[in-house]
Amino acid sequence: MLIAPSILSADFAKLGQEVDDVLAAGADIVHFDVMDNHYVPNLTFGPMICSALRKHGVSANIDVHLMVTPVDSMIEAFADAGASMISFHPDASIHLDRSISLVKDKGCKVGLALNPGTPLYVIEEVLHKIDYVLIMSVNPGFGGQTFIRETVDKIKRLKQLIVDKRLSVAIEVDGGINESTIKSAYDAGAEIFVAGSAIFNAKDYKQSISALRDAIKK
Ligand code: DX5
Ligand code: ZN
């Protein structure tokens, strides 16, 4: 299981240090929540933050979650800025197959992000072309929201679909992940866990990250 702290909840006044600290505290991937105040009612940051962190010396995987529309220009910009993984929302892309190919042509792992209200069939025809599915367990736009429990059943159904099709697509879950919600997502089949407030709101990042890892063993 991989832990991906969302920098949306980090202290942006010292972002480089925050990312260094969570990685030193045991995080695996850095989750970038990119919002355009169009696809979601919030505005965050652009590709320059990604290149700045690469220049700062961050070598870990940077998992860019695009909550923007249109997506293609941001796919290119974040790939050029050092993204390792890029996910986007199918309903935000003008041409799903073309956007998936663009991420792959730029050398990044490609994921599709599904809002709680978006059914699994939206990605059925392209599931074999992608590396991971980002299951949103909150409605996108903000950190610190409550985990939507119905998501657990959706993760189980997605896992079954992946098994039935004999694919090796990873399941990433995003939103409201903390010590009391992570185990249900893990047991349902999720392998990558985005956590923003559960990690960055804690004083001790090592403790909050190990608490997430320990919680799945209970
Ligand atoms: C919401 C973002 C999530 C969010 C997670 O639109 O995609 O990544 O920042 O934050 P928490 O873990 O606090 O719910
Ligand atoms: Zn996210």
From TrEMBL:
The stretch of residues making up the signal peptide is none
Q: Which cofactor does it need?
A: Mn(2+); Zn(2+); Co(2+); Fe(2+)
What is an example of a Pfam family matching this protein?
A: Ribul_P_3_epim
Any one GO BP annotation for this protein: pentose-phosphate shunt
Q: What chemistry does it catalyse, as a reaction equation?
A: D-ribulose 5-phosphate = D-xylulose 5-phosphate
InterPro entries named in the record: Aldolase_TIM, Ribul_P_3_epim, Ribul_P_3_epim-like, RibuloseP-bd_barrel
A single GO CC term for this protein reads: cytoplasm
Co-factor binding comment: Binds 1 divalent metal cation per subunit.
Q: Where does substrate bind?
A: 6, 65, 141-144, 174-176, 196-197
Which SUPFAM superfamilies has this protein been placed in? Ribulose-phoshate binding barrel
UniProt pathway? Carbohydrate degradation
The active site is formed by 33, 174
| Entry's EC annotation | 5.1.3.1
Annotated keywords: Carbohydrate metabolism, Cobalt, Isomerase, Manganese, Metal-binding, Zinc
Listed binding positions for a divalent metal cation are 31, 33, 65, 174
Molecular-function annotations in GO? D-ribulose-phosphate 3-epimerase activity; metal ion binding
Report if keyword Manganese is assigned. yes
The record ties this protein, via PANTHER family, to: RIBULOSE-5-PHOSPHATE-3-EPIMERASE
Q: Which family does it belong to?
A: Belongs to the ribulose-phosphate 3-epimerase family.
Briefly state the protein's biological role: Catalyzes the reversible epimerization of D-ribulose 5-phosphate to D-xylulose 5-phosphate.
Question: Under which name does UniProt file this protein?
Answer: Ribulose-phosphate 3-epimerase
Organism listed in the record: Agaribacter marinus
